[in-house]
Amino acid sequence: MPSTLPDGDPAPPDGSLPPNAVDGADARVFGVYIHVPYCRVRCGYCDFNTYTASELGPGAARSDYAAQVEAELGFGAEVLRRAGLPDRPVSTVFFGGGTPTLLPAGDLARMLSRVRDEWGLAPGAEVTTEANPDSVDAAYLRGLADAGFTRVSFGMQSSVPRTLAVLDRTHSPDRVPLVVGWARDAGLQVSLDLIYGTPGETLEDWSASIEAALACEPDHLSAYALIVEPGTKLAAQIRRGEVAAPDDDLHAEMYELADRRFAEAGFAWYEISNWSRAGVLGGASTTRSRHNLAYWQGADWWGAGPGAHSHVGGTRWWNVKHPRAYADRIAAGVSPAHAREVLDAETRRTERILLETRIADGLPLEVLAASERRAVPELIAEGLVDGRAALGAGGSEPRVVPTLRGRLLADTIVHRLLG
Question: What local confidence, expressed as pLDDT, does residue 282 receive?
Answer without folding.
Answer: 44
